[in-house]
Amino acid sequence: MPWLPLAAAHPATLEKLQKIPPAFWLKVGIAVLAVVAVVVAARMFAKANKIIVVIIAAVVFTLIGFNWIYERNEPAWATPIVAKLAEFFPSKTTHPGK
Predict the structure, then answer these.
(1) What distances in angstroms separate CA 87 from CA 53, 69, 84, 91, one per listed residue?
(2) Is residue 72 within 8 Å of 82, Cβ to Cβ?
(3) Domain range spanning residue 53?
(4) 11 within domain boundaries
(5) Which residues of 1-98 form beta strands (DSSP E)?
(6) Is residue 72, in this structure, part of any structural domain at all?
(7) N or C: which end of the chain has fewer CB within 10 A?
(8) Does the model's pTM come out above 0.70?
(9) In this structure, is residue 36 part of a structural domain?
């Protein structure tokens, strides 16, 4: 048990780790899983035909972009671009409903 002297030497660190709320560890776990999923997907796309990957990415970005423009629920960093594009495309507030 080579870690036992380390644990006995720094009990304050273990106490600090125990005081961290479980919600934080859940978020860290989700972030680690997201990174692993991105790496696995990137390796999978690296083996695929590049044209197909570009077409799929363009369709996904277009759908997300038009959803942001129509619903106006974009993240704060995208607001300047979406505000410019929203002048040319219909949004939920400017499009007449049935």
Answers:
(1) 30, 9, 6, 9
(2) yes
(3) 49-92
(4) no
(5) none
(6) yes
(7) C
(8) no
(9) no
